[in-house]
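Quarterly update from the structural biology core.
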Amino acid sequence: MDYLKNDRTRAARANPAALLPGAQTLIVLGYPYKYQTSSGIRIQNSSAPTGRIASYALYQDYHHYLRKKTKLFAAAIDQVSGRKNRFLFFIDSSAILEKDTAFMAGAGWIGKNSLLITPSYGSFQYLAVLLTDLLIEADEPFTTDLCGQCRRCITACPSGCITENHSVDANRCIAYLTIEYKGVIPGDLRAVIADRIFGCEECQLACPHNEYILRNLTDQNSSLVIEPTVDLIREMELSVETFQSKYGGTPITRATFQGFRRNLIIAMGNSRSQECLPILENTLFHDPSWLLRLHAAWAIASIMGQGSYQILSEVCRLETDYRVEAEILSLINEQK
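Predicted structure, tokenized:
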């Protein structure tokens, strides 16, 4: 995510008027979404291992939905102000940092898990920013840190990525690794990813400020377009075309087709399910992606243990990519 620190982005963040000449005010909008539990869900006609998708990605793409809502909000501002104002909408699409801007606007505070927490809706919410040339009196920043001495999110984090200064080490964050990061998942983090194939919500589920919203919020925007639990083997059988057909227009495509398959492979390894071995072996021997072959080798070793020695030794003689070969040799050495 180097784009967040390039010179152009930093300049625009320091002076938002560079994005909209004559801009006077930033307005932050939040919209809650309902957490969808995957516990106890069984996939019809399937006994294969499953993977979990974070709740925010299960609805229609929030970028499109929030843009519609924000345009309605802007139209209402025009009506109340009695003038035609200029607007720019930002939803994960600019130099503006939504959480920091929301904090400065008094919407809530930044929790120990680095998320914006509002008194009414906790952290289960989408954020949008509206930049306008209309001058509006600014609200005061939220001055109270209501996290206090609570450490539930820190304790609940599977990868230990939450630091002591209300921030997160993205290099260890499961949400970052399964969505934004496109490379090799570090070996010590693969097991803690467990069955999470897109995102992670553990820190939010542990937060006491989300207890009310988890119990009482009904679906606000639309019905689910993606189920919270998917069959790992069926998902691995998707082609590029069927992946786009199923997930196009949803946040899932942010992970990319290859990144999503990498996540599925890790979840297969963590499942320890023998049912996954045929597709993993096919990936290891035949997939053109070195990244997927590397993770498939690990997944096979995770499922078979010392029984994977023969397969790994055989493929090691055929492997042409030094990165995959190094992974396989490391796995073989661990079994000695």
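The first strand starts at residue 25 and ends at 32.
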